[in-house]
Every structure is written in C-alpha cells, then in structure tokens.
Automatic annotation (TrEMBL):
It comes from Domibacillus iocasae. The keyword Kinase does not apply. The keyword Transmembrane applies. Pfam families: DUF418. InterPro entries: Bact_Transport_Assoc, DUF418. The lineage of its organism: Bacteria, Bacillati, Bacillota, Bacilli, Bacillales. This is DUF418 domain-containing protein. The chain crosses the membrane at residues 21-41, 61-81, 93-114, 120-137, 144-166, 214-232, 248-268, 274-298, 319-338, 344-368. Residues 232-387 form the DUF418 domain. It comes from the Bacteria.
C-alpha cells in the first residue's frame, strides 16, 4: 500500500513539476523575441560574439521546441481530467469546456495585441475546442491519433523540404528579413505604446494568419493535447512512476535520439530550413518525451521530489506566471518601459530570465501558502464554473 501511495505521490508531483519546468523553458525561448526581432532574423547571423552563439546553440538544442510540447501535453492532460470529473458529476463536459476555452481565447487575443505577440493561449484555446470532439475516445486511441497527427505531417514536410533543397539550394536557407527587422527595432525600440501595439498586431498576424500559418500552428500544437489526454486516460505517468528502472531506460533512449535529431542543423548546416524543421518538428517532441520520463523518474525519490518542488509551485500558477513573464518582458525591453530592446546580449537576457523565474518560484510558494490557486487561475475558474475558491 505504501508503495502504491508513493507512486501516486510521484505522479501528482511530476505533473506540476512538468508544468513548472516547461514554463521556464518556454520563457527562455520567449526571452529571445522579447529583446530582439527573433521572428525575422537568422540567429547565426544576428549574434556576433562567440559567447552569445554558444548560449543560443544550447537553447536551440536543449530548449527550443522541447518544452512547449510538454506544456501543451499537460494542457491536454488537464482537459481530460476535467472531462472525466464533469462527466461523473453532470454527465457532460461540453459547455464547461466551451466556457473554459472561450475565456482563454479572449485572454490570448488581449495578451497578443496589448502585451506580447508571441502568445500561445489563443492557439491552445482553439486546440481546446477541437479536443472536445475527441475526449470521449479511449486513451489508447487518443495516443495513436496524437502520434499520427504529430509525426505523419512532420515526416511529409521534412521530405518535401529536403526535395525542395535539392532542386533549389539557394531557397532552402533561412534568410534574415531586413525590412521586418528594421520595422521591429523602430517600433519596439523607440516607438510609442500605440506604435508598439500596431507592431504587435502585425507580428501576431504574420505568425498566425498569413500563408497558412494558423493551420501550421494547429498541427504543431493540437497533437500534443491529444497525447496529453491519452496519457491521462492510460495513466502513463503512474505506470512510469511504478517502474522507475524502465522509465530511466526510456529516458536514455529518447534523450539520445532526441539529441541526435536536435543536433542535425549544428552538425550539417544551422541555416538549412529542412534541417531546422526536422530539428524542431521531430527532434523537439522526442527530447520533450525524454524530459518527461526523467522528471517522473526523479519524482519517485523523495529527496529529488523535494528539490523539484519549487518548480511544482510555479507550475500550479502557470497561467499567472506566464502572463507576468510577458508583462515584465515587455516593460523591460519595449520603448514604453526600460527600452532594452536590441541593447543587451543573449547571455544577459538568459540571466534576466533565470532571475525573474526564480522570483516567480518564491512568490508562487508564498501565494499558495495563503491561497488555493493563483489569481488568474481563480478568475479562469470563476468564468468556467461560476464560483470562487
């Protein structure tokens, strides 16, 4: 009985730790676009010092595209959990889900237009509406669908990009968009709040609505919701916690495969679009799965679980912390704040990111000692269920 309770405790702790760590990983990547026009430049042309290039390489291999899959999977995990509870209580989750994701949709647009254009809440909300049609399926079917939706398009696009590169090598490289870089620097670096807002809307439209970008966003996010929902129904994390040795072996296999895939551009050519796509679309999720296995494994040990518990506190307030990261990032870097946009090194940006997140971890712990959930989580709950607490 004690062993079963320990496994269940490891499963519960690992869920919040995964949310917290993925939130930190996303913040590291987001910091790139807070303090420079990351959407539009080739980073290997932009960063000039060896120190910054090394720092970017580490982020590119170990962080980029390997933490948002975890965050999205945990979002699907939570949706499946709420669906199960709602069905037991009222027989349906449909209207609860609609209210829940409608709030997130509106919040995401407000966040994108008035704080930061790299918002993920809008895309998660749309994916949330879609998953309402799938939550009735078994965990096994959800996992299969998620993996198919994730890897089949990824393999097809990878093949098409490789073939396109063979036929036209010049157009297979990622080039810096000088015009967009100049516009971003002018707006974010020295523009008024109104000018910054117009640039934010333009950036968001370019990255979400132009040239099939929205469909591409869906096929890179929605599968992870299915996988997370399937993992909940299949009790995957609990099974991993019950078999730590097998989970550790799984980590080593996935980590090795993910690292090789993520390293392809660095080994062959960092500016080649086919290699960059394979790195993120295939290597990113594989490495993410290895991180999940490692966290579950570590959480089976009390000492390791205690060391990771601060990340769990931040994970319990992930929506509040995510929005605060954007607010702080915009105030630090945009012209209507301290105006550091384009003015600091990547290394300094990483140190800022670590410092801000460390403060968030401390504040999250203090807040949750007094309240049951974070402030934005409480508002979200009120909008969803019409009750406080």
């Amino acid at each position: 009985m004690q062993h079963v309770q320990q496994n269940e405790s490891a499963r519960i702790v690992s869920i919040d730790v995964l949310r917290g760590l993925s939130l930190f990983g996303i913040f590291l990547v987001n910091m790139l676009s807070f303090h420079s026009p990351y959407f539009y430049y080739n980073p290997y042309e932009w960063w000039k010092t060896s120190q910054d290039l090394i720092a970017f390489s580490w982020i590119d291999v170990f962080v980029q595209a390997s933490f948002y899959p975890l965050f999205a999977a945990m979002f699907g995990f939570g949706a499946a959990m709420q669906h199960e509870k709602a069905v037991k209580r009222t027989g349906t989750f449909l209207w609860t889900g609609i209210r829940r994701f409608s709030f997130l949709l509106v919040l995401g647009l407000l966040h994108a237009f008035f704080i930061w254009p790299g918002d993920i809440l809008f895309n998660y909300a749309v994916s949330g509406f879609l998953i309402l049609f799938f939550l009735r399926f078994s965990g096994r079917i959800l996992l299969i669908l998620g993996l198919v939706f994730l890897f089949v398009p990824a393999f097809i696009f990878s093949l098409l990009l490789v073939l396109a590169a063979l036929s036209d090598p010049y157009n297979s490289f990622f080039w810096t968009d000088i015009t967009s870089v100049s516009q971003s620097i002018a707006a974010y670096g020295s523009g008024s709040y109104a000018e910054v807002t117009l640039q934010r809307i333009s950036d968001w439209m370019n990255n979400n609505m132009m040239d099939g970008a929205f469909l591409f966003q869906l096929i890179t996010i929605f599968p992870f919701l299915l996988i997370g929902a399937g993992a909940y129904k299949q009790q995957t994390l609990g099974k991993w916690a019950a078999n730590p040795k097998k989970t550790l072996h799984l980590f080593f296999i996935l980590f090795t495969a993910g690292l090789l895939l993520k390293g392809i551009p660095h080994i062959l050519d960092p500016s080649h679009m086919a290699y960059m796509y394979i790195q993120d679309a295939i290597g990113g999720p594989v490495l993410a799965a290895s991180y999940a296995a490692l966290i579950v494994y570590l959480c089976t040990f009390n000492r390791a679980a205690n060391l990771l518990s601060p990340f769990a506190e931040a994970g319990k307030m992930s929506l509040t912390n995510y929005l605060m990261q954007s607010v702080l990032g915009s105030l630090l870097f945009y012209a209507y704040g301290l105006g550091f946009y384009g003015q600091i090194t990547l290394t300094t940006g990483i140190l800022l990111c670590v410092t801000i997140f460390a403060i968030q971890v401390i504040i999250s712990g203090l807040w949750l000692n007094r309240f049951k959930r974070g402030p934005m989580e409480a508002v979200w709950r009120f909008f969803t269920y019409g009750k406080r607490g």
